[in-house]
Amino acid sequence: MRNEDIPSLIYAYQTHLLLEKSLSRHSVEAYMADLNKLLDYLRDEQKLPQEASLEDLQEMIIRLHEMGIHPRSQARIISGIKSFYRYLLLENWIEKDPTELLESPKTGLRLPCFLTLDEINAIIGAIDLSQAEGQRNKAILETLYSCGLRVSELTSLHFSDLYLDEGFIKVNGKGGKQRLVPISKTAVHEIQLYLIDRHRIPIKKGFEDILFLSRRGTALSRIMIFHLVKKYTEEAGVRKKVSPHTFRHSFATHLLEGGANLRAIQAMLGHEKITTTEIYTHLDRDFLRSEILEHHPRNKQRETSAKITSADNPDSAL
Q1: Rounded to the nearest 10 degrees, what angle do helices 117-125 and 244-257 cross at?
Q2: Residue 204 falls in the annotated catalytic set
Q3: Pick the catalytic residue: 198, 249, 254, 271?
Q4: Is the pTM of this model over 0.85?
Q5: What's the pLDDT tens digit per position in 7-30?
Q6: Residue 295 CB: number of other CB atoms within 10 A?
Q7: How far apart are CA 81 and CA 62, in angstroms?
């Protein structure tokens, strides 16, 4: 590999991520950003990618740490670098993977915050329905919470993906994988009200099938959804760091607290691995303790024995 080979290699790797790995363009952009950090470092060291050793890569991670990059971001960059070297190994550009023993920094388990039902209601209740986009925004937040969608799944939701009479929507998830997700009657009602307004919008060509539209008749951006969530969270007086993903996490948490099966939640969230669902669903200690006390057979047996003893010996209760 020579310096002049690097641009074509980068293009081939990018194509590999898009077509063979079926990653979204957003994910591919993140991988390429991580790769550029590696290439910049190796350029400073006057080395080609196939010449990098484990020690070189460890030195790069030390430099990232010295720059003040958070361990979680370091771990993501390392993941991107490992993906690149696995590709080089697969395509016979290298004979040995230098990232095989490259360790990620300890990041710990960070559970994202979730909202209570009262907080969800307060945020949605802060929407001014007299405003032009008020009903649209209410339908957006209800759908986000009701279906536990990623923000990218929400913005790419199509009018033809709605099966409202059946109570389902079709979601295009990561890697182009589709799944059917139940939708609440509340969200269905808000969408139906929004559709009245949607029919009045002059829709630009190519966006006729997009469900949630901007006032210009085009698809909403991810940034716009983040802005809406932040705006209504502040207006509701909710003092938590809330993003669209907080609605998704709250959806999973409330389902689990309500007794939903973890596998069912996994299917609705579109998680490939059950371990991901276990991380995203969080129960507070008080709820978990009350569930164990109520449902564990030893506790039930003790409670039953206590009732029998009390009935046989009324004086024991005095």
Answers
A1: 140
A2: no
A3: 271
A4: no
A5: 888 899 999 998 888 888 888 898
A6: 9
A7: 15
Residue type at 206 in one-letter notation: G
Of the candidates 123, 166, 170, 125, the one whose C-alpha atom is nearest the C-alpha of residue 147 is: 170
Of 16, 174, 222, 231, which one is the catalytic site residue? 174
Q: What is the pLDDT of residues 25-56, one digit of tens each?
A: 888 898 999 899 899 888 888 888 888 888 88
* Distance of alpha carbon 283 from alpha carbon 128, whole angstroms: 32
Residues in the chain: 318
Is 280 an annotated catalytic residue?
Answer: yes
Catalytic residue among 150, 198, 254, 282: 150
| Residue 174 known to be catalytic | yes
Torsion sign over Cα 150, 152, 153, 158: positive
Count of C-beta atoms within a 10 Å radius of residue 240: 12
State how far the alpha carbon of 275 is from the alpha carbons of 72, 265, 266, 272, 291, in Å: 18, 12, 9, 9, 21
Active-site entry in 248, 249, 254, 282: 248
Query: Which one is catalytic: 31, 145, 232, 280?
Result: 280
Listed in sequence order, the residues at least 6 apart from 71 whose beta carbon sits closer than 8 Å to its beta carbon are 65, 105, 106, 107
Tell me which residue of 29, 37, 244 sits closest to 152, measured CA to CA. 244
Coil, strand or helix: which one is 25? Answer: helix
pLDDT per position as a tens digit, 272-284: 777 777 665 554 4
Q: Is 150 a catalytic residue?
A: yes
